[in-house]
From TrEMBL, chains A, B:
A single MF term (Gene Ontology): DNA binding
Short name of any one Pfam family annotated for the protein: HxlR
Name this polypeptide is given: Transcriptional regulator, HxlR family
Record domain HTH hxlR-type: where: 13-107
Superkingdom of the organism of origin: Bacteria
Keyword line: DNA-binding, Transcription, Transcription regulation
Matching Gene3D superfamilies: Winged helix-like DNA-binding domain superfamily/Winged helix DNA-binding domain
Source organism of this protein record: Aquimarina spongiae
Amino acid sequence: MKAKKNKNNLEECPVSNTLKIIGGKWRLRIINEIGEDKRRFGELKRLIPEISEKMLIQELKALVEYQIIVRKAYKEIPPRVEYYASEKGKKVFPIIEEIKKFSNDTN
Amino acid sequence: MKAKKNKNNLEECPVSNTLKIIGGKWRLRIINEIGEDKRRFGELKRLIPEISEKMLIQELKALVEYQIIVRKAYKEIPPRVEYYASEKGKKVFPIIEEIKKFSNDTN
DNA sequence: TAAATTATTTACTTTTTGGTAAGTATTATA
DNA sequence: TATAATACTTACCAAAAAGTAAATAATTTA
């Protein structure tokens, strides 16, 4: 059983905590484009044309650190790297589904 | 039937579109604290101690503009203002629910 | 030899978001 | 008369997020 970090104060609300991981302009977008697939960096670039390369790797890195996605690099030239959702990452799919429903329901 | 704004290019993805409305550090947090209740400004301040007053009204205003919440002001002195979720706003509850599930599942 | 390929990295600038702290209006109450 | 109460508003500054543009490494192919 993992202890919660209730030392002095901190440990906020579940909403804020989750937003630290998947909040921001790009993360859900990226996770959505990866979905159940494996995606290469260049592929994601095409799928999300509005994102800059800098933001894309930066956010991919963060998602890897949070263990939402997995990075697999092949030792080839030119390089090939694939990203895919971890088990933890798959747990954000339902959030995305609800977001899509909201979008449909409200537009 | 409402036409989608597919003039020249634009009209992005449902994820990005929804994040414009409920994205950012505070909006989901605020909606979550309002929930099914009516909440006064000062109440929300207490419920979300980390937010500054400036951010709180700023975000409340934005949520009112997006018709996620409703602002009801009573003509009293000292002033009394209540905020509550609109029908549209209630449609974001399922998103919040999934976020909470994620938080539970993963911590 | 030059160019293409791919996934980064870096430096620099702009934009957006957020924080602090003080002020306002209006009435009731001490 | 001074203070409390409430929901803001304003000005000013700092920090975080994001954009631009160019560079890199290591091979293969033309």
